[in-house]
Amino acid sequence: MNTEMKQYPAELLSGKEIAAAIKEEVAEEVSKLRVVGIEPCLVVVRVGEDAASEVYVNSKIKTARELGIVSEHKHLAADVSQEDLLATVEELNERDEVDGILVQLPLPKHIDETAVLETIDPEKDVDGFHPVNAGRLFQGHEALVPCTPAGVIDMLKRKGIELKGANAVVVGRSNIVGKPMAMLLLQEHATVTICHSRTKDLAAVCSQADVLIAAVGVTGIIKEEHIKPGAAVVDVGMNSIEDTEEAKGFFGEDELEKRLRTIEKRGSTLVGDVNAKAAKSKAGYFTPVPGGVGLLTVAMLMKNTVKAARMRRGEQ
Ligand code: GUN
Question: Distance from CA of residue 116 to its chain's centroid?
Answer without folding.
Answer: 20
